[in-house]
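Aim 2 progress update. The chain analyzed this quarter is reproduced below.
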Amino acid sequence: MAQSARAIVIGGGIGGLTAAAALHRRGWEVTVLERARSLEPVGAAISLAPNALRALDVIGIGDEIRDLAAWQGDGGLRTPGGRWLSRSSAEAAAARFGGPLVLLPRTTLVDRLAALLPPGTVRTAAAATLADPGDSARPARVAVAGEELEADLVVGADGINSRVRSALFPAHPGPVYAGFTTWRVLIPVPGVEFASHETWGRGRIWGTHPLKDGRVYAYAAAMTPAGERAPDDEQAELLRRFGNWHDPIPAVIAAARPEDVLRHDVHHIAQPLPAHHLGRVALLGDAAHAMPPTLGQGGNQAVEDAVVLALPHSRLRSSGGTPIADDLAAYTAARLPRTTAIARQAVKVARLNMAQSRAVVAVRDTAIAALSKAGPALFLRSFDGIADWRPPYASEEAHAGKR
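Predicted structure tokens:
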């Protein structure tokens, strides 16, 4: 029997675990190296659009995740005073893109992805360094805990400050500050009923959404200097910035304890990488194309990357067949144009929803309301060409584990 090809995934986040699960499903021997002491994810919740759910179908958990959808009835875009600028519904979104939008805790998705892997696949507290990217004639090498591991493929899924990316493309400028910071909370808010919504103000936004488990996921963003922090605590900062906005925003802020509030400045990769691979190493997710969260596609694109990398048409192997350089070039060709376009669109949306000029905001809100009366809501329009994506050869891959 031929020896299984070996892959090392550096990074145990959503993209890295999806890649590991997809490669394992294809028969690869996989090791995941995560520098943190546990797989506890950074962040509160993640929104999965139909494109990512179709990618998860490839590894067999799409329907399970769809069952966690909580958005029912109307939702949409509002002003800080509560006026609806644009309305949509879960039914309209599903009809337009062929599936629901699912918001779930990141821990839920990470746990489900990790459960697809054999025991011992994930090594935590394992800070890894790419020692050699390899080429078509020699394996890649990864240094970890005083030893070097060889692999036919290394997947760099180590996030926005990726050390793998820096090793592959040292001349690339890396991530830059997007101009705004974000806050996130995931908490119970008893007795509060509301329609799922996002609210746009002047240089500030807020979103409030129910989860299937009964908790509320809320996020906020504001234009601030990089590195700025509240003089007291971030719950108090939310109250200062959003406490006079429409219901249920004040109630959500009041229900949060200071320790419930996560705050992170937003950075993104403004200059696309020359490729998403080099030698036997592939980059995915934020390591390859970190983008502002304004389309909610960062994690979705990581899931897409992972599945495309492992699909059968890639034919990644250690010897024979197509040289691995050609296989990874095909991965770059499939992913770099799409992720670059989506990242640029996310930047454009950020300029729109984080606008600070009163005049610009007035024109923006009037245009959104008019456009939404004439056709699909802005929320739905923004996902055209994104949420309708389908994995190539997905039908073949979906049955691979049953053969």
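The longest helix spans residues 324-353. Residues 313-322, 395-403 have pLDDT under 50 and may be disordered. These observations will guide the mutagenesis experiments scheduled for the next reporting period.
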